[in-house]
Design brief:
mainly alpha; 434 Repressor (Amino-terminal Domain); 7 helices
């Protein structure tokens, strides 16, 4: 079995974004607050180890949410990067449409029979004329 390459998606995202925001390690840590309690959720040492690609304990949702606030990024971006780094999960954006992502996630958990029904429903909708995958495409 091939060994999976280590991902540093979250580490690299944090390092790049902190640089863009021109924040020090402590400056970013001070902005990583729980929005409900205003408690600082991430210490500067964790950010430092993360950016150096040193091992850290995987972050929990509250920490990811606070990191998103500190980095001024959507929580989804932080979650996707954390999922890749800590769990080896790669999220496909699917053209950025949240509805497509919801359908895809639901389809992955369906029984084969329900998935066949969903495919039948999808195939009943007309295909855009400019869609290269359309069976009606003359090219």
């Amino acid at each position: 079995m091939a060994e999976q390459e280590t991902s540093y998606a979250l580490s690299d995202l944090v390092k790049r974004r902190r640089s863009e925001l021109r924040l020090s390690l402590r400056g970013l840590a001070e902005k990583c607050l729980d929005p409900d309690t205003k408690e600082q959720m991430i210490k500067h040492g964790v950010i430092d180890r993360m950016e150096k690609r040193e091992p850290i304990t995987p972050l929990q949702y509250r920490e990811l949410r606070a990191l998103a606030i500190g980095l001024q990024l959507p929580v989804r971006d932080i979650q996707d990067a954390a999922g890749e780094q800590f769990l080896g999960i790669t999220t496909t954006d699917l053209d950025g449409d949240r509805r497509v992502r919801i359908l895809t996630n639901r389809a992955l958990s369906m029984s084969p029979e329900d998935l066949d029904r969903l495919v039948s429903i999808a195939e009943s909708f007309p295909v855009r004329a400019d869609d290269p995958d359309s069976p009606n495409d003359p090219t």
